[in-house]
Amino acid sequence: MNSFTFTQATAVADAVQANAAHDDAAYIGGGTNLIDLMKENVARPTHLIGLKKLGLDAIENLPDGGLRLGALATNADTAWHPEVEKRYPLLNQAILAGASPQLRNMATDGGNLMQRTRCYYFYDLATPCNKREPGSGCSAIGGYNRVCGILGTSDQCIATHPSDMCVALAALDTTVRVSGPNGERTIKFEDFHRLPGDQPERDNTLEPGELITGLDLPAKGFEKNFSYLKLRDRTSYAFALVSVAAALELDGDTIKDARLALGGVAHKPWRDKEAEAMLVGQPATADTFRRVAAKVLAPAKGYGANTFKIELAKRAIVRALKQATEMNQLVDTDAFQNSNP
Amino acid sequence: MSHHTTDYIGKPTNRVDGPAKVAGTAKYAAEFNVPNLLYGYVVSSPIAKGKITKIDAAPVLALPGVHQVFSHENVPSLAWLDRSYKDDVAPGGSPFRPLHDAEIKFSLQPVALVVADTFELARYAASILHIEYEEVAHETELAKHLDEAYEPGRGKTGYKPPKSRGNFGKGWKEGVAHMEAQYSHHAQHHNPMEMFASTVEWLGDKNLNIYDKTQGAFNSQQYVMKIFGLSKDQARVISKYTGGGFGSGLRPQYQLFLAVLASLELQRSVRVSLTREQMFSFGHRPETLQHVALATAADGSLTGINHVAVAETSQFEDFTENVVGWSGTLYDCQNVELGYRLSKLDVFSPLDMRAPGAASGSIALEIAMDEMAYAAGLDPLEFRIRNYSDFDQAQNLPYSSKALRKCYAEGAAKFGWEKRTAEPGSMKDGNLLVGWGMGGGIWDASKMPATVKASLDADGHLTVSSGTNDIGTGTYTIMTQIAAQSMGLPLEAVTFVLGDTTLPQSPLQGGSWTAASVGNSVVEACSKLGEALLKQAQQMDHPAFKDAKIEDVEFANGQLRLRADDTQAVVLRDLVQASGEPKIEAENSTVLAKLEMLKPPKYSMHAHNAVFVEVKVDPELMTVHVTRVVNAVAAGRILNPKTARSQVLGSVVWGISSALMEESVMDHRFGRYMNHNYAEYHVPVNADIHDIDVVFVSEEDDKVNPLGVKGLGEVGLLGVAAAVANAIYHATGKRVRDLPVTIDKLL
Question: Taking Cα atoms as reference points, which of B525, B528, B519 lies closest to residue B708?
Answer without folding.
Answer: B519
